[in-house]
Amino acid sequence: xxxxxxxxxxxxxxxxxxxxxxxxxxxxxxxxxxxxxxxxxxxxxxxxxxxxxxxxxxxxxxxxxxxxxxxxxxxxxxxxxxxxxxxxxxxxxxxxxxxxxxxxxxxxxxxxxxxxxxxxxxxxxxxxxxxxxxxxxxxxxxxxxxxxxxxxxxxxxxxxxxxxxxxxxxxxxxxxxxxxxxxxxxxxxxxxxxxxxxxxxxxxxxxxxxxxxxxxxxxxxxxxxxxxxxxxxxxxxxxxxxxxxxxxxxxxxxxxxxxxxxxxxxxxxxxxxxxxxxxxxxxxxxxxxxxxxxxxxxxxxxxxxxxxxxxxxxxxxxxxxxxxxxxxxxxxxxxxxxxxxxxxxxxxxxxxxxxxxxxxxxxxxxxxxxxxxxxxxxxxxxxxxxxxxxxxxxxxxxxxxxxxxxxxxxxxxxxxxxxxxxxxxxxxxxxxxxxxxxxxxxxxxxxxxxxxxxxxxxxxxxxxxxxx
Amino acid sequence: xxxxxxxxxxxxxxxxxxxxxxxxxxxxxxxxxxxxxxxxxxxxxxxxxxxxxxxxxxxxxxxxxxxxxxxxxxxxxxxxxxxxxxxxxxxxxxxxxxxxxxxxxxxxxxxxxxxxxxxxxxxxxxxxxxxxxxxxxxxxxxxxxxxxxxxxxxxxxxxxxxxxxxxxxxxxxxxxxxxxxxxxxxxxxxxxxxxxxxxxxxxxxxxxxxxxxxxxxxxxxxxxxxxxxxxxxxxxxxxxxxxxxxxxxxxxxxxxxxxxxxxxxxxxxxxxxxxxxxxxxxxxxxxxxxxxxxxxxxxxxxxxxxxxxxxxxxxxxxxxxxxxxxxxxxxxxxxxxxxxxxxxxxxxxxxxxxxxxxxxxxxxxxxxxxxxxxxxxxxxxxxxxxxxxxxxxxxxxxxxxxxxxxxxxxxxxxxxxxxxxxxxxxxxxxxxxxxxxxxxxxxxxxxxxxx
Lengths: 468, 451
Fold this sequence. Notes:
The complex is a heterodimer of chains A (468) and B (451).
Chain A: H1 4-15, H2 22-38, H3 40-51, H4 55-81, E1 84-85, E2 96-103, E3 106-110, H5 118-129, E4 133-137, H6 143-156, E5 162-164, H7 169-175, E6 182-186, H8 189-200, E7 206-209, E8 215-218, H9 224-236, E9 248-251, H10 253-271, H11 287-295, E10 301-304, E11 308-309, E12 314-315, E13 318-321, E14 338-343, H12 347-355, E15 362-366, H13 370-379, E16 384-387, E17 408-409, H14 415-420, E18 422-429, H15 447-456
Parallel strand pairs in A: 3-4, 3-6, 4-5, 6-7, 8-9, 8-15, 9-14, 13-14, 15-16
Antiparallel strand pairs in A: 1-2, 2-18, 7-17, 10-13, 11-12
Helix pairs in contact in A: 2-4, 2-5, 3-4, 3-6, 4-5, 9-10
Chain B: H1 2-16, H2 23-39, H3 41-52, H4 56-82, E1 85-86, E2 97-104, E3 107-111, H5 119-130, E4 134-138, H6 144-157, E5 163-165, H7 170-176, E6 183-187, H8 190-202, E7 207-210, E8 216-219, H9 225-237, E9 249-252, H10 254-272, H11 288-296, E10 302-305, E11 309-310, E12 315-316, E13 319-322, E14 339-344, H12 348-356, E15 363-367, H13 371-379, E16 385-388, E17 409-410, H14 415-421, E18 423-430
Parallel strand pairs in B: 3-4, 3-6, 4-5, 6-7, 8-9, 8-15, 9-14, 13-14, 15-16
Antiparallel strand pairs in B: 1-2, 2-18, 7-17, 10-13, 11-12
Helix pairs in contact in B: 2-4, 3-4, 3-6, 4-5, 5-14, 9-10
Keywords (chain A): NAD, Oxidoreductase
GO molecular function (chain A): 3-chloroallyl aldehyde dehydrogenase activity; aldehyde dehydrogenase (NAD+) activity
GO cellular component, one term (chain A): cytoplasm
């Protein structure tokens, strides 16, 4: 077991109590901030090399949003760490009752390649804040970024408590043979199953941030120009390689006729007449992924875009029409810059279509009619929901970010990260005095004692239950 | 296989009909459950007596009172728990609606245990109904009378399709676990907990596992031993030691070991009289298999008190073992019986180290007049929950999350924590289709200015 030594070393560090003081955690978090500042240029270059990530996008998602999470955590950590006192029943008024936030111990974070810094760093912030030791396993697919993480990150953090492990499937499989106290995984549902099965061997709790096909319903009553811009932005950001990107669009044939020219204009405004020459449009991460996405182009008919270049792993911002539910592009998460439009007759049909499929990570509905947006929200289920825009719910750290069903379990961001990586321990501290008050609970039981208990704990709709 | 598929399919169809979503419906079902507990009190107590030899008043306090309390609390608070929760917005989202919507998960599976067979099925059921789910209940077959009663009663009071009871043993449970659920709450042992989680992993089903372990009880030299021992005696020997949060073993300084034994001995006389076996308030081990298991833990041990047993009636007397070796069998597995080993330690540091070398327990107890010491033991160890200067009691405060950590489990429930466990917290951001100018900054083409 090649990683057993590393895991037990980290566990020993955790048991030594090194990571428990707030000052220690703050210092490690501040160091993470310095990592982002010092390595910003290298990160922008690495993600440009790995994914053709436009510097604007990289700065936004890999630096800016990470620093937001960092600052939010640094600003609030002392408050989050405090024991949370809870309401007490009558019989416990003299006691102290609170929820303690204990670290779990040794945490494993497995990150994907599409936002290669963000998707390990934001969970890492939560894990450190909660007092854990952490092993980070960045994706081997985004190679240049992986190298920065493996070579530079450890020198910023306490090597006794934090480590980076690199490698592919074989290495990750061996890593998962060890006992962790929490596993945080971002990736695909099939691998999510493998991770959870491995975790079950040790009863390790998990958070799985997975994916799915995020539906985007556009009603007939809406501002088509704005809809087209917001949808295009969400779809083509990072060349479509975003877990919460609008995956496919549902609308009536009439709306489709209006949307196509609006989408065409939006794409032209964003990327110019030849997106391949735009510095603001990304590339597919690898050959295998490029071929997979390219194959999906045979579904329906190309209304906009459709050009590809294998050498550059370029796929043009593309919109497909005449797409059937049985087409290949409707069978898997696209994770590329292609937006299929599936025509439906009305909102009810759209909702039925959505509900007959796995619950997605995100769900979008566009309408100038509030009632329509609310109907879609109420009659469907998804990890998160954004009305009249795409992606934006991700940017608010006060909203929990996570999936449901096939799109995942658990959540994070902001305080939810801290809570995810803490064990919430219920504590009751009583006094040794007032022992006579305990008398009714002790044997020998008698009708009289029973009467006392019953009277003392008479339950009505309005009162608290005073038990014993 | 087909039978389980049909049952779960029916529950899912009932859930998809949407009728469990309105709060009025959920409260109506909870009210019906409340009526069931009140009207069938006699039958429930009789089943508990048959399964565990639990006495009326005892069974009522431990199993029925808690359920009624949870029902009352849930019905009162449900509207506030279920209300959408607005969240703090930033400058960018100032004009938008941002909130967390509490939504049902779908079809929930509740697997009960035999030691508190009624409450361990009812409390999760209450939370799952409150959160708007359909529920399949699988009571433990070991407590067969309670299982049969629950299977008879629930359909008489609740919506038959939304809430179903499945009875049976390992084969039936295994079959059930091949079906897809949206949450599974399992109460039981660590070994089966792993099987449940592995089965859940196939469907990416979130789980709450309420397991067990050896809950340590540290008694400091600076404490009121009489009071401490009375409380420990109550928690250890209730239900004949078959309580997941019973103090499993004691850690104390050798100089007070003798006094601890004396105090517990006195308390036992007070509780059960001179002849424990004839006390109506002392329960029995649930079956022969567990009787033999617990009895075998006594082999080679120094019995300071008790040790008597009677196989025919599954009776084991309240027993204390002294100077127990950490390597002995009784210190390996959760005892789940009326046997209390005392392991001596020279200091609180030694006690903390002892505890930390072992799996994280479901509960941890520490008795001391010294508040600093209590704080230290809590902060330098980990456990599902803690009660200081008493045992068991943190279970009864529903504002505290009840659950394990590590080998003792994952997730928590009780009160609002049940509602949250069985709900999906869906993030919602509702923007306006107008105000597009504020979006211009984020669109390409990019420029340094925009960044």
